[in-house]
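Step 1: inspect the first sequence and its tokens.
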Amino acid sequence: MEIKLVRHCETEWNRLEKCQGVSDICLNANGINQSNLLKECFSNLNIDLIFSSDLQRAMQTSEAINNSPTRKIEKSKKLREMNQGDFEGLTFSFLRENHGDDLKSWRENPKDFRIPNGETLGEVQSRMINFIEDVVNNFHKLKNIVIVSHNLAISSLICYYLKKDLRDFTTFKIDSASISTLIYEDKKIKVLELNNTEHLIK
């Protein structure tokens, strides 16, 4: 079984470098273009199941990928981005200037540091791992599963399957509309591909 982890396509908040979290933002024009390129990329893949975060930027991306008019996209709140609480809607530059100590604490201990009124990255990782394990346990006989989620949610999962500390999430990128692939074989899950964006180069 292969599990394609797709980060949603670009939103205007991505372009403006705003903290997005669980704020429900739709795709911008570039994001829609990216979703069309993803549609091409997946057009010849025999997809068995599509799971998606219920936030609209993920659902718009999922709907583009869905190459069967009769296939239902399975929505789940477990696939949402990390809830970033009081930081949502603020630009990264503003956060660096006004909340530098909080950002430093978060990068040093993302597993346990809680953004005010938000989640820890450890909590995000736990719900993502649980989701993947449920998928593997229930659908291990299928061949191709697509999961559309978000930057930190996917990053935390990749850290787990690469056996990296959560602090290492800053050492790699998960770009908008990128594809990372997990493979399940011999009762183990491994990272086969990380942050593939070749389909976006036209």
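Step 2: inspect the second sequence and its tokens, then contrast the two.
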Amino acid sequence: MRRSWAAALLGIVCLCASAVFAADTALVRDRDWELGRKYLAEGKSQEALELLTRVAQKYPNEPDVHLFLALAALRTRDPQAAAAEVEKTLGLDPDHAEARTLRGWIELEVKRDYAAATADYAKVVELKPDLAEAHNNLGVAHKKAGDLEKAAGSFKRAIELRPEYSEARSNLGWVYAEQKKWREARDEFERALKANPNDEGALYGLAQAQREMRDYSGAEGTLRRLISRAPNFVYWLEWGQVKLVHYWWVLMLTAGLVYLNSRYQRSRRSIYGGADGKKA
């Protein structure tokens, strides 16, 4: 369920996209504003920060300016400055869903304040009940807070709203994994991979579910797929462990069959009374 800074911020930028058109007409036409957001989208974080800081000085009462400035601050690894800009956004517009989403993410991933993150994400769900991402974010907060039942409910709602939502399906799979519901976990990971074959978390989760269900051949194959996409040492180590367990079971089965066959032959000889198979 881990999400990188880049992936999470990209999602928040997408959420912000619809908000900027409500801004002041002068702001919309401002070249620094346009270029600052462009630089942010392109990953030119420092350049974006400098331009957006200048824009904030010109338009201090525009919530979206402070929100994008917060995003730029996060991209330059300054969460304290980002949090301050988010508070400015919410001071101007307490129902700014995108700002609450970003504050929830900072609380969740930076401050580890799961109760505060849950409260912010719940407010976003209240503001945008039909937004699948809002329910998925709330589910992540519930899971990190240890409430697996509520987490599952949020992920299921996200999936109802968008059945092909691979991240929500993968997250639900990990909830089932923590509950030791391996068949349900496997089903969700497989569905997530149908929607997004490149979902690394779903691939790793599927391998874990297959391993717990003693489908060692399946787990070995899934880990090979994962290694081909992300050659992580941990994945190689787990692949080796699965390989050993798989062959251990094959050896044990072979030994068992040899043992049973020897018992059968001894029994047969005792019945017929001799090694040559003839009756005495």
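Step 3: confirm your contrast with the notes below.
The domain at 1-111 is CATH 1.25.40.10 (Serine Threonine Protein Phosphatase 5, Tetratricopeptide repeat). Confidence is low (pLDDT under 50) at residues 2-7, 17-22, 248-253, 275-280.
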